[in-house]
Write a structure and sequence with these properties.
It is built from ten helices and 15 strands. By secondary structure, it is α+β, with helices and mostly antiparallel strands. The strands form six sheets. It has a four-stranded mixed β-sheet.
């Protein structure tokens, strides 16, 4: 196994260098060989590990003294934990915290606003043709009194007295530095000594929002519309959330929806089915005529092309399907019964091809 390199040589300092000189040398080398700046460079990665280990020993007075007296043997057990990147995060934070903490704190204060959901119920016809609706809902909006700062007019947030503006509370535990979010400022690094009377220091207040939303033609139950930026306002420069509108559609008495197609069942009389007729049928665009040929059976389906729902975002439309239901008379007077009896005698089997075909199959 190759012998370990001298820690002083790795950092490029003398044995009588001060702690500040060692710290300065380490900072310079760490920035040069950091993995983020040398992606895929194995030599830089190895160098980075070595200087990380060296600084972990020489920055600690007791470990440095042991190293000066006994060399690597004196600190061998303690140095093992710094061969990789595990200890670097804490050391790097201690060394470079003053450089990066202010930038981090500014970002940690910025928070995006919450997304909101709103459910709306519309009629079947409104879903087919599209409609504009005004809705009312509550959301967080930036406090106008303090302009979102949370501080009373004429005052500003001060540096947090607990974490001194870093947003973190650090504790040394052996070789490691353990950091946790400051309980006083919740990681923002700032403390509001004089809260705004309107928002209580939150920087936002709840307000009713009136908004007209455009519901496009062709929406169906379960459709969700996204209205960007109409959710709650963000904090400290954060983006506003979005509003999601869930569409519910009331069922129709006649029409049934199946994707972009519309289904409707139309009852006709026995005589209309037998003799053929022209009937008036409803569509979402109004009434239209439909020719029913003689001998139409119950369950027959006719198609009205382009009479269905609009395809959202396009010009195409689905179809309307007319299902014919032949209605059998349930109450007959004596004259009607006699006429049906005579019709039955005159018709014979030839008048009922479906029945004849069915009987032929089960008797064969």
């Amino acid at each position: 196994m190759a012998s370990k390199k001298d820690y002083y040589e790795l950092l490029g300092v003398n044995r009588d260098s001060s702690s500040e000189e060692i710290k300065k040398a380490y900072r310079k080398l760490a920035l040069r060989h950091h993995p983020d700046k040398n992606d895929g460079d194995g030599k830089s990665e190895e160098k980075f590990k070595e200087i990380n280990e060296a600084y972990s020993i020489l920055s600690d007075p007791e470990k440095r003294e042991a190293y000066d007296r006994f060399g690597h043997e004196g600190v061998g057990a303690g140095a093992q934990g710094f061969g990789g990147f595990g200890g670097f995060g804490d050391i790097f934070g201690d060394i470079f915290g003053d450089v990066f903490s202010s930038r981090q704190n500014r970002h940690s204060r910025r928070q995006n606003g919450e997304d909101l959901r709103y459910a709306i119920k519309i009629k079947f016809e409104e879903a087919i043709s599209g409609i504009s609706k005004e809705i009312k809902y509550n959301r967080y909006e930036t406090c106008e009194e303090c302009d979102g700062t949370g501080s009373k007019k004429g005052t500003k947030p001060s540096s947090c007295p607990v974490c001194r503006g870093t947003g973190e509370i650090r504790q040394q535990q052996g070789f490691f530095t353990v950091s946790r979010t400051c309980y006083k400022c919740h990681g923002t690094g700032e403390f509001i000594e004089y809260p705004c009377h309107a928002c209580g220091g939150d920087g936002r207040i709840i307000k009713e929002r009136r908004l007209e939303i455009k519901i496009p033609a062709g929406v169906d139950a379960g459709t969700r519309l996204k209205v960007s930026g109409e959710g709650s306002s963000g904090l400290f420069g954060g983006h506003s959330g979005d509003l999601f509108v869930d569409i519910n559609v009331s069922p129709h008495e006649i029409f049934k929806r199946q994707g972009d197609d519309i289904l409707v069942s139309i009852p006709i009389s026995f005589s209309q089915a037998a003799l053929g007729c022209e009937i008036e049928v409803p569509t979402v665009d109004g009434k239209t005529s439909l020719k029913v040929p003689a001998g139409t059976q119950s369950g027959s389906q006719f198609t009205l092309r382009g009479k269905g729902a609009h395809v959202i975002g396009g010009r195409a439309r689905g179809n309307e399907y007319i299902n014919i239901v032949v209605e059998t008379p349930s109450k007959l007077n004596s004259k009607q019964k006699k006429l049906f009896e005579e019709l039955a005698k005159e018709s014979g089997e030839d008048a009922h091809p479906l029945k004849k075909s069915f009987l032929d199959k089960i008797l064969s």
